[in-house]
Amino acid sequence: MDFSVMTMFFIALDRLLSVTFTLFYERLKTFCYIGFICLVSFTYAISFRVFSYVTFIDAPVLCMIADGTSGSALTSWMICSIAINLGVIGIYVALNFKLSGHAASQQSVTQVTRSLQTLILVYIFGWLFTFVGTTFGMRTIQDPLLFSALMIVLGIQANLNLAAPFFVYFFRSSLYKMEIKKLFERKTVFVASSLSKRSTSFVSTQ
């Protein structure tokens, strides 16, 4: 979960970087660039797991993600998660204004802008809504069962947010839709050609 939250931040930053610093972005080495992102995301996730283990208390809890940590570790985790989600939304808003100012007349740019606007709303009611709601529940709700019920509802929002970007890009932007279709068509052609080669080689051996 922490890894995916951090990677979502880098994905948003990657899109802003590709638009703002195009030449610098094209010169980046893919292996080193992706490796750096994965390393930072992995380090962030592991750091909180270690911090949670150090501050762990021997007490019965319900099997939920937020109950795996307590005290200062839980507070730090929630603050960092909210800050990262606010950063993602801020980057997407900046990217939206950037694209709108470049070429609003181009249909492809307009469609990408609309998909970004939809993704911002999805992200607000997904990760950000989940973490803010959890923090609010921790401070105001004393009943463990009521808090668990709140976490279940908020968890649904978070899970929907994981799959939402694919549907947003596919249905709100024909540019992304075309590229996604090309990707699946290439896989289909590759599988078909592989099966054809196998059948040809089988016939030749008979």
Automatic annotation (TrEMBL):
PROSITE patterns (alphabetical): G_PROTEIN_RECEP_F1_2 (PS50262)
Residue span, G-protein coupled receptors family 1 profile domain: 1-169
Pfam families (UniProt xref): 7TM_GPCR_Srsx
Subcellular location(s) of the protein: Membrane
Gene Ontology molecular functions: G protein-coupled receptor activity
Keyword match Transmembrane: yes
Residues passing through the membrane, by range: 6-25, 32-54, 74-95, 116-139, 145-171
InterPro entries on file: 7TM_GPCR_Srsx, 7TM_GPCR_Srsx_nematod, GPCR_Rhodpsn, GPCR_Rhodpsn_7TM
Keyword Metal-binding attributed: no
Entry GO CC: membrane
Keywords, ordered alphabetically: Membrane, Transmembrane, Transmembrane helix
Name of this chain's protein: G-protein coupled receptors family 1 profile domain-containing protein
Organism annotation: Steinernema carpocapsae (Entomopathogenic nematode)
